[in-house]
UniProtKB/TrEMBL annotation:
One Pfam family of this chain: CN_hydrolase
Similarity comment: family membership: Belongs to the carbon-nitrogen hydrolase superfamily. NIT1/NIT2 family.
UniProt entry keywords in alphabetical sequence: Hydrolase
CDD domains: nitrilase_5 (cd07583)
Protein name: Carbon-nitrogen hydrolase
Organism of provenance: Streptomyces carminius
Higher taxonomy: Bacteria, Bacillati, Actinomycetota, Actinomycetes, Kitasatosporales
Domain CN hydrolase: 1-255
Annotated GO MF terms: hydrolase activity
Ribonucleoprotein keyword on record: no
Length: 274
């Protein structure tokens, strides 16, 4: 398989609609790839908390602008597209944080996976929300279920940014059949070393490929780490962004290698605590 990770820059002077148009054009340029990945919350900026409510979108209907743009781009390029994540405005009222007697719709950090025909085939609501007592943790509702997406040549395990710090989620994805873990992120530069370390750890401990796609630029004054990378099940980095500027990271990988590693070094079968 050929993967392209688009480490798109988020410039707060650029409108969300202009960035959608630009991102769609970047996806269409990757028609030689099998799988294209965008980062987390590239329409609003992962740390621009004040824009979350205004930038939220449904996943269906005429207001689903990102879904429409990414569906068209995937169809035109004939690629599988993990379109990063958006702030989803859900149909149901928020149950957390705290709920709202007025029935304000719940907001989620939701990842989107499109087929080469442009169909939205899987969505994943981020389970672990960053911020402790502010940001995502107070503004967004939490997803509840691990999600995989079955492609012709591999099964993707879906996770987002802060999820990377919780290995139990990745073990659940592995047990659900994942062989390739896709992790879009808006990871800050000050913790860039953690991003690279944890991405390799998730690859090694689960004997999976990891496609970790970060953002470039600055989100609400927070410089981004970049460092998008493709890592194989032995922990070797196949390709990595040279810096935190906007760029496309490309790599070819053999999905069957994950099973070969597991057969040659069957550490997963020796797991005792479950």
């Amino acid at each position: 398989m050929r993967a392209s990770l688009i480490q798109i820059a988020v410039n707060q002077d650029e409108t969300a609609e202009d960035r959608r148009v630009r991102a769609a054009a970047l996806v269409r340029e990757q028609s030689a790839a099998d799988l294209v990945v965008l980062p987390e919350l590239w329409t609003v900026g992962a740390f621009d908390f004040d824009s979350f409510a205004a930038g939220a979108e449904p996943l269906r209907g005429p207001a689903a602008k990102t879904v429409a743009a990414m569906s068209g781009a995937a169809r035109e390029a004939r690629v599988w597209l993990h379109a990063g994540s958006v702030i989803e405005r859900a149909d149901e009222p928020a149950a957390e944080p705290a709920g709202d007697p007025s029935g304000t719709p719940a907001l989620y950090n939701t990842s989107l996976v499109f087929s080469p025909e442009g169909a939205l085939v899987r969505t994943y609501r981020k389970i672990h929300r960053f911020g402790f007592d502010r940001g995502e943790a107070t503004l967004l509702s939490a997803g509840t279920e691990p999600v995989t997406a079955v492609l012709p040549d591999t099964t993707l395990g879906l996770a987002t940014c802060y999820d990377l710090r919780f290995p139990e989620l990745f073990r659940a994805l592995t047990e659900a059949g994942a062989r390739t873990l896709v992790i879009p992120a808006g990871w800050p530069d000050r913790r860039a070393a953690h991003w690279s370390l944890l991405a390799r750890a998730r690859a090694v401990e689960n004997q999976c490929y990891v496609l970790a796609c970060g953002t470039a630029g600055t989100h609400a004054g927070v410089p981004q780490a970049g460092r998008s990378a493709v890592i194989d099940p032995w922990g070797e980095t196949l390709a990595e962004a040279s810096d935190a500027e906007e760029q496309v990271v490309m790599a070819e990988f053999d999905p069957a290698y994950a099973d070969e590693v597991r057969a040659d070094f069957p550490v997963l079968r020796d797991r005792v605590l479950r």
